[in-house]
Amino acid sequence: MGVRRFGRVNWLGLRTLATREVMRFVAVWQQTVFAPLMTAGLFVLVFALALGRGRSEVMGLPYLQFLGPGILMMTVIQNAFANTSSSITGAKVQGNIIDTLMPPLSAGELLAGYLAGSVARAGLVAVVIGTGMMLVTGAGITHPLWAVTFVLLAALLLGGLGILAGIMAQKFDQMAAITNFVITPLSFLSGTFYSVEALPEPFRSLSHWNPIFYLIDGARYGVTGVSDASPLRGLLICLLVVVAVLYLCWRWLKSGYRMKP
C-alpha cells in the first residue's frame, strides 16, 4: 500500500472533486438554475392563481405565502438529489467512474466532494427561487437562520440519498424509477401544497413519518413563522436521518459496494 504524502486530508483532491461537481451544473445553468425557476413559477401560476383565487387562508397565511416555502424546498430537494445521483450514475454508465475511484481519496473525501456539489446547487436554487418568492409575495423571511438550516439539511439529506441511489442504479432507467416512485412522491406528499393537519387519519399520522415533511415544515417556519409540527423536533429528526444516511454513504463508498469490480 502507498503512503499518503499530503497529510490526513487530501485537500487538493477534495477541492478538485468538489470543483468538478460544482462545474457540472454551472456549465448547464439553463437546465440546473433557470429550469427550476420556470417550474416553480408554473406551480405558483397553477396552484395560486387557478386553484387559490377564491381560497381561504391556510394556517393563517394567504395561500400564495403558504405555498412559497413548499415549492422552494421541493425544488431544493429535487436538485440536490439529481446532482449526486446523475454524477455517479452517469460515470458508471459511461465507464469513467474509475477516474474518481483511482485517485488517493478516502471515503470521507469522496462523500464530502459529492455533497459539495449538491449543497452548492441547492443553495443557488434556493437563493434564486427565494428571491423570486419574496418579490411575488412581498413578504420577507421571519427566521433566516432556521430557513438556512433546513435548506442545508435538505441538501445534505437528498445529496446523500442521491449517492445511495447512484450506487444502487446500474443504468438511467433504474435511476428514473427511483426518482419517479420514491423521491417525487415523498416530496409531493409532505405538505408542499397543503397543511397535513387537513388530512384525515391515517394519512396525517403517516405524514409525520416522512422526513421530507419536517424539511418542508421547518423551512416554512423559517420563512413565515408558522408550522404544522414543532420546528425543534423537526430539526432533531432531520439531523438524525442525515447522520444515518451519510454514514451509510460512507460505508458504501469505503467498501466500493456496486462501484468496484
From TrEMBL:
Domain ABC transmembrane type-2 intervals: 27-256
Highest taxon, organism lineage: Bacteria
Topology versus the membrane: Multi-pass membrane protein
Record keyword Cell membrane present: yes
Transmembrane segments: 33-51, 63-82, 111-139, 145-165, 177-196, 234-253
Keywords recorded for this protein, A-Z: Cell membrane, Membrane, Transmembrane, Transmembrane helix, Transport
Pfam families: ABC2_membrane (PF01061)
InterPro entries assigned: ABC-2_transport_permease, ABC2_TM, ABC2_TM_bact-type, ABC_2_transport
PROSITE patterns tied to this protein: ABC_TM2
Cellular localisation: Cell inner membrane; Membrane
Family: Belongs to the ABC-2 integral membrane protein family.
Classification via PANTHER family: INNER MEMBRANE TRANSPORT PERMEASE YADH, INNER MEMBRANE TRANSPORT PERMEASE YADH-RELATED
Protein name: Transport permease protein
Species annotation: Paracoccus saliphilus
